[in-house]
Amino acid sequence: MLYHELPAEDMPRHYILSHCIWVDDEGASPGSSIEVINGKIIRIERGGHIFPENMATLEYIMRDKLVTYGLCDVHVHLRQPGFEAKETIATGTTAAMMGGYTAVCAMPNLNPTPDSVEHIEEELNHIKEDGAISVYPYAAITIDRKGRQLVDMETLREYAIAFSDDGSGVQSEEMMRKAMEEAARLDVIIAAHCEVNDLLKGGYIHDGEYCKANGHKGICSESEWGQIERDLKLAEETGCRYHVCHISTKESVELIRQAKKRGVKVTCETGPHYLVFCDEDLMDEGRFKMNPPIRSREDRDALIEGIKDGTIDCIATDHAPHTADEKSRGLKGSAMGVVGLETAFGVCYTHLVKTGIITLERLVELMCLNPRRIFGLEVDGEANFAVFNLDKKWTVNPENFASKGKATPFEGMQLTGKPERLIFEGKLIDLIFQGYSKSSKAFQQ
Predict the structure, then answer these.
(1) By the 8 A CB rule, do 42 and 36 touch?
(2) CA geometry: angle at 60 spanning 58 and 62, to 5°?
(3) Measured at the alpha carbon of residue 92, what is the angle toward residues 108 and 363, in degrees to the nearest 5?
(4) pLDDT in tens, 306-361
(5) 3-state secondary structure of 249
(6) pLDDT score, position 56
(7) How far apart are CA 337 and CA 197, in angstroms?
(8) Which of 24, 299, 318, 391 is the catalytic position?
(9) How far is the C-alpha of 304 from the C-alpha of 352, rounded, in Å?
């Protein structure tokens, strides 16, 4: 089975997670303990603990295990409502849980588009019914994400974590200015998928050496950074809080770096695949096709510098599942998008921390703490923890994914580091890696 949640009647309400490596804003503290009563953090003690004498407790010895607040992904596609063949709330949030996440932010390319209260409430009903962890939906920036008419942000802000037309760049500068002015007035975030349609010219992978050598059509880097450059100017003028989705080019990194120095209210994310691969690693398989595409070695190196120096704030998966048929048509014919929730921590720990590129503390900042700060999801005492075995070696096998999507560029890769337990809303969940649980709610969808 994928995971086991202890029955409510067997659940102690008082936990102590002891002898662990606790990581938070103050850094990593080996030998720490966390005390939880009725789903609330009562005490975090570094370097040792004192057991209460007169309360029924359940102690978990987490010797040398990483314990931190549950991971938070600000960019996932859960596909429901409208595209349940690709993913559902149940399967997507189970996949997130299996990856050590206790919170995800769901993108708005759905049917119906969450561009009105009626439409976003439909999504929220699915989340309430089937969500295994916390899900915070985005609302669209424009009606039906078509870039022509602004949504009623003032009404929708009570329902949405932020506003995005993800999957589509807002082509009109006038429309984006209008959106940013309203977002600044309401103090909400615009999260932008940056893509200049006129520069795409039928491309589907990075316009680099692999593309030219193998007769493919390329996507130029300016299609991304050109719109980022425009939006940073607008954000600076309007004072809007502006978050850039899935950056992939060296120019994007430098534009955001300089904007931050000028005081622009900008944050950004990149994905694990952009930090590990470059276009030299491409194969003519759908599992290597996503938007934006995997780019050059120079772009990858610039992204790594961006996570090291703080220019890049978050690592987000852009988890984008499709059916097996949609991903079976090579680079040219496959749908854009790969899955990532179940591999993200292992990929980043293996390729970024164990190689000495960044510290464990920085990884937790990128995957857990910063996403919550930026989008206002501070933990505030809630006992939502993830426990990771940093010594666990495993091989990525998509057939064992909880997600309906199986297309990942990391297929077959050997990784180190995997989640073992979650505490979510006071419930202890053991994550077990023995294949599918046919009784799990996620797999009855």
Answers:
(1) yes
(2) 165
(3) 90
(4) 999 999 999 999 999 999 999 999 999 999 999 999 999 999 999 999 999 999 99
(5) coil
(6) 53
(7) 18
(8) 318
(9) 9
What CA–CA distance (Å, rounded) separates 74 from 373?
A: 11
Check the CA dihedral 190-193-198-199 and report its sign.
positive
Rounded Cα distance between 225 and 250, Å, is: 9
Between the alpha carbon of residue 129 and those of residues 119, 152, 383, 441, the distances in Å are 16, 26, 22, 11
At 10, the amino acid letter reads D
Residue with the two structure tokens 């200049």 = 196
Q: What is the mean pLDDT of residues 127-148?
A: 97
Token digits for 21?
């490596």
pTM over 0.90: yes
Q: What is the DSSP letter of 202?
A: T
At residue 17, φ and ψ (nearest 5 deg) are -100, 110
Write the pLDDT tens digit of every residue in 314-328. 999 999 999 999 999
Quote the Cα angle for 77-397-308, to 5°: 60
Look at the block and give the residue holding tokens 């080996």. 30
- Is 25 noted as a catalytic residue in this protein? no
Q: What is the pLDDT of residues 240-295, one digit of tens each?
A: 999 999 999 999 999 999 999 999 999 999 999 999 999 999 999 999 999 999 99
Q: Under a CB-based contact definition with an 8 Å cutoff, are residues 287 and 309 in contact? A: no
Find the helix or strand (DSSP H, E) in which 41 lies. Answer: strand 40-45
Residue 20 has pLDDT above 90, yes or no: no
Dihedral over Cα of 243, 249, 250, 251: its sign = negative
Query: For 166-220, where are the alpha helices, taking DSSP H only?
Result: 173-186, 209-213
Phi-psi region of 364 (alpha: psi -120 to 50; beta: other; left: phi over 0): alpha
Task: Tell me, rounded to whole angstroms, the distance of Cα 440 from its chain centroid.
Answer: 23
Give the pair of three-digit tokens for residue 341. 């929730």
Residue length of the chain? 445
